[in-house]
Amino acid sequence: MISSLFSSWLAQAAPTADELQGQVTLDSQILTEQFYFWTVVIMWLIHAGFMAYEAGAARRKNVMSTAMKNILTIAVVTPTFYYFGWYIYGCFEEGWPKDGHGSPTVEGLEVLAGFCQNTAPWAAQMGPNLQDHVSAVFFLAFLLFSWTTASIMSGALIERVRLSAYLILAVVLGSGVWIMDAAWGWSGGGWLVTRFGFHDAIASLVVHGVAGAFTLGVLLNLGPRIGKYTVDGAARTIRGHNTHLTLLGLMLIFTGFYGFYAACLVIQSTVFPGWLNIYFSPTTLGAIAFVITFGFAGGFTGGWFASKGDPFWTLSGGLAGVISVSAGADVYHPSLAYLLSISGGMLAVYAGTYIEKKLRIDDAVGAVAVHGVCGFYGVFLVGVFAGGYPTGVNNVETSFGGQLMGMLAFLPLAFIPGYVVSWILKKLNLLRVPAEVELEGLDLAEFGQDFFPEFERVPETVIEPDGREVDAAPVLLDAYWQTNGRAETPVGTGERS
Amino acid sequence: MFDAFPFDEWSEDIAEFWTFGGEGSTGTYIMTALGVAAMLISLIGFVWLEQKKLRRQTEMLRASGALERPAVVVTTTTTTIITSD
Questions:
Q1: ipTM of the complex
Q2: Overall number of domains in chain A
Q3: Residue B15 domain-assigned (yes or no)
């Protein structure tokens, strides 16, 4: 059977020009399909990395509850993004859709007209479709970005947030907030792009900054871990149980970032002559690969020197460096990316220290500093170093004012929902685990077991503000009593009744 | 183009076949509604199940006296706590 098919195939007449054209188009579409598919595979590493990173940063008693947050992110964000998140992206580029399902209707971008109706869950593009090799994988790439936004928040909340509260917040952020900002400022027809030339090519702000701002809103309601601060407000250091695991997680995230970067580009050779960024402005895969690699190099350098060689902040500095140059990754020279990312790596360390010690916000992994502050910083830098660059299909010049407009739009868009939803959960007593469970550890309450049964338990320790390492138990118990057994009560202001 | 392998013809036969119907069909709407319902129920379920677990564990911990303040050595399930007034 196979050999006769093969013989028949060999015996065919030469194809016509139309047939060849059709075949080239099909090959191009399948190449695009494969490209996005493999970026999705690589981006899974980001989530494996976030899981390892956060589990390592957690104390032994909270390891599995921390890891489960990352895993269940996929369980809740995937369906919610499919049922309404993708629709938001398709339909809200111009704000409220001007032409309903016919939106967007952007001059010069007629190829996108009607994209809105293609994003509904019952649309032909959202199911098995032999005529469409692109929509499904493009959706999947965006879905992985959505998981990433939730995972960015995840680490900041560890060791005291309820798993279910985190999952609700992940849905709001991953399938609502971030994708709305992507529609506005990270699409060919986004109003911030077509009117103000907003430029955030590889998502410094639309993914990282927005996730950081949302997280800040949540942290204000969640409060610090019991014992994190002394009665005088000085910060103790609560060390994770496995820094090696944390660093491995960061390295996995970095690897996945190459997939993330690649997935931010558009390629369809029979429609466009070459690689485009998300705004349909020409670029190359090599250009952004240059910038991400130099971003890591500069970020590690900046993080190392600013933290005086702290391993955690050195690697976090790498992440911060990349985030700082992502917005302009399609236009920066590698040397510029290197210099800017050094400053980004340093900024993350200083901002993280300020948030922890001055603002007294317990962000367990520095997510607000690394993703939030550096995400906004990245967009700011484009306004300074890439002003005049013609962005998008109508070539609006990128400007500092346009970048500022994006920042002013996205800060409240992210912060307010994070604050409001977490405030509601707090009022319903569904945000934070009971103080008793927090002291004992979430793993026993959630799963009924210790996940290192073959290892002897050693006394937990904390680092006092003066640098002394002390037994954690009396410190935590004292903090528990001083907060009236309610972790949200400010330390030192109450007595147990 | 590939006469010996009628991919195009087969494609046309199955192009619009989805389980329970194609684009915009009643079956698709019903499946979407069921999926949304499952999504919402699972979210509520996550909250409900965790609430049950946390309440049980908290009551057990309070009843055990493991977190009382007196100056005694108390052993919890994860850490040894030494307290003093």
A1: 0.86
A2: 1
A3: no
